[in-house]
Amino acid sequence: MTPSQPASQPHAGFIGLGAMGSGMASSLLRAGIAVRGYDVNPLAIQRLLDMGGAAASSPAGAADGADTLLLMVLNGEQADESLFGENGAVAALAPGALVILCSTVAPSYVRTLAQRLAAHTILFVDAPVSGGTARAAEGKLSIMASGSPAAFARATPYLAAMAENLYPMGDEPGQGSTMKLVNQVLAGIQIAAAAEAIAFGSKAGIDPNRIFEVISNSAGASWVFQNRVPHILADDFTPHSAIDIWLKDLDLVLDTGKEMRLPTPLAAVAHQLYVMAAASGYGRLDDSAVIKVFEKLAGFRVLDAVAPEQATSSADNSSQ
Hints:
The protein is an alpha/beta fold. It has helices at residues 19-30, 42-51, 59-63, 76-84, 107-118, 132-138, 149-162, 175-203, 208-216, 223-233, 243-260, 265-282, 291-298, 308-311; strands at 11-15, 34-38, 54-55, 68-71, 98-101, 123-126, 129-130, 141-147, 163-168. Helix 5 (107-118) links the parallel strand 5 and strand 6 (123-126). It is elongated and about 65 Å long.
């Protein structure tokens, strides 16, 4: 805590300051919560400093003196390393501290993690998020959270600072992560379906801008369609949510389905499209780049179907 910060100011540690985590940390700072953050990327640390946060040189450093620690790392392996690895955060947290995990991970991992933290007398809330980088920066995420009543009450001011919609999912850790996977089933399939639809119409010679306009006002519309197709029309695959993320998230869906003995055939097909995109070298591009799989297989480009009078206006759609 810096000398200019009053002693009563809430102080959170934050591990994982990537595109999503950086926006979430900025929302906490705007809410008057002091943030000391750690990330393996020095540029991410610098962004936090520029926003008015403090830097840590290790996960333990981020947790030192914090009564609440938030994690927005890639997966369960990174969460484990951050908490229990060399210079891990758990060793620096006092008994009674709170850990909030916002990453998308397996519900089974979350349940085990909650038990491990309880052995250290540390409270835990399972709080995965949805909404993308822009909404993270605006403090307008949807957060589906589960944990004991005591843990949830402690976590609420932090979650509310980052969320437009905060959904309590019950007392048991793992219920929040299960709800996030429900969202990922739909979103992962819909991104792939939107790409297939645009490829289908464009290959048939319809201007993709016209497809976007018509479908946006028809029964086939979805939030995902209206959010991702403009990236395709603008030929801009700057990663807001990368192809590689869907390899991980749909892996979690498929594995959790197997645990429940529940078939997930549509998620499996979508997963294979993302595998094909990653295998083609597109893994670090925006997830809308799954369109490139269809283009590669069919030997065409969607934007070749753009009418001349529409070519200059495609970029305008990217802000929708």
